[in-house]
Amino acid sequence: MTRPAVSAQLGRTARGIRSIAHRCSCGLPDVVETEPRLPDGTPFPTTFYITCPRLASAIGTLEAGGMMKEMTERLGTDEELAKGYQAAHESYLAHRESIEHVAEIDGITAGGMPTRVKCLHVLIGHSLAVGPGINPLGDEALAALSDWGRRGPCVAAAGSSELTGEQASTAAGAVSGLDD
After folding, report:
1. Strands of 48-50's sheet, edge to edge?
2. Which superkingdom, per the lineage (predicted)?
3. For labelling alongside 87, which of 17, 79, 96, 114 has CA 20 to 30 A away?
4. Residue 71's domain spans which residues?
5. Is the pTM of this model over 0.90?
């Protein structure tokens, strides 16, 4: 099955995709669920991967603004937050394990869970995929973003050239055929 919209968003051929985990307000995917092991055999701990370049850029702005450092500091002083983040870590691991056991990444999540915050992309991808109330820091970072899809599909923003209406329609149609 081809994945032209996701590949265009990533600027490379999409690989290891199990399903679309979340769709942007524009209708295109913004988070995919990946296999725990890529087709070439490489272990891949990032189960929920951001594909939308507008979302990725907005998250990068949050990271550059110091949000990760502030969140990590709070984990050391806020017991309830730390418990919630530990539960998010366990939920993430259980989900990935339900797909496939990969010994090389057993017990390892992504994004710094459960003791620090090192990647908001992972935390927001997790929150978008599973919904609110599971990853408290992902939910918090997500709430700091505005609607990245409000300008419409990002597919043209992902590549060096604009897609024609026909190409964008074909890409959207092919991606809508993926498992949701």
Report:
1. 17-23, 29-34, 48-50
2. Bacteria
3. 17
4. 4-9+16-158
5. no
